[in-house]
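Please check this one:

***
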Amino acid sequence: MDRYHARAMLLVLSFALLSKGYAQDSGTLVPAIITFGDSAVDVGNNDYLPTLFKANYPPYGKDFINHKPTGRFCNGKLATDITAETLGFKTYAPAYLSPEASGKNLLTGANFASAASGYDDKAATMNHAIPLSQQLEYYKEYQKKLAQVAGSTKSASIIKDSIYILSAGSSDFLQNYYVNPLLNKAYTPDQYGSYLLGVFSSFVKDLHGLGARKIGVTSLPPLGCLPLARTLFGWHEKGCVSRINNDAQQFNKKINSAAANLQKQLPGLKIVVFDIFKPLSDLVKSPSNNGFVEATRGCCGTGTIETTTFLCNPKSLGTCSNATQYVFWDSVHPSQAANQVLADALIAQGLSLI
């Protein structure tokens, strides 16, 4: 489904949902968006942590509001930012560790995501990121704060009707499994993926137990097409690294199956696995079809290895002047222009959650 059909369907939905209190009050299709996960959705939590994985400095954010970095690993908006706008939100849910995460700002949700986090808590801890288990503890804290701001009845309604987004898995494979011989010599990618899926299932059960009923989880992207993967692992082949993409596709099949089982097990749960593998893979394979020029390297610096302050920073040589022509902003993360395409896919696939 293209972006125009997705937006047309949303327009129809917006009229249908006017009977809901929050639609009348705020013009949003859901009361709040609550986000967990990694750098694909981190809006600045890592700014407040002693970690190398930060994006609170130029040239990150150069195309964002006021052209200032916020901690988003992008030149501009994340796919989830664009999705929030499409759902009617005028502001973005704050990073939970930021001073903005207080008072009435909590009514539109909260973002607990942390770059370099994922399903594997041990890897997140090593990277000084917020492990997924701690993100869940922060969410419990958020619920108490929300009740104080909104009252118990309204807060319970917000918790039940909000959309919950989970983005994880990429860091587990790209920044942990493939580069850690203690893991990749002891476990096959399939075995490691099964371990991650166990964490995923437990997390969804815990979140459901805390009141969540509408959950969207992203699939793995085509990891073998990320510029960093091509640089580190693609010595023997042109284009994307096929074995890594195959691993991602096998994981995606399993997470779809796990999600289907969870929906059967957990009363009232709606869960959608957002396929980001295909839309991003299509952009990489045929960039010109979507108005892009470059899909093999990122805009920042050389675009082949840059992804932290040591490599993508104001002194990086070769940073492109027009990121809209690039599928990737740095060696791992999509540009705002690519995120627009991904956001359209998220909306189209997630209509059942609205």
The chain has 13 helices and seven strands.
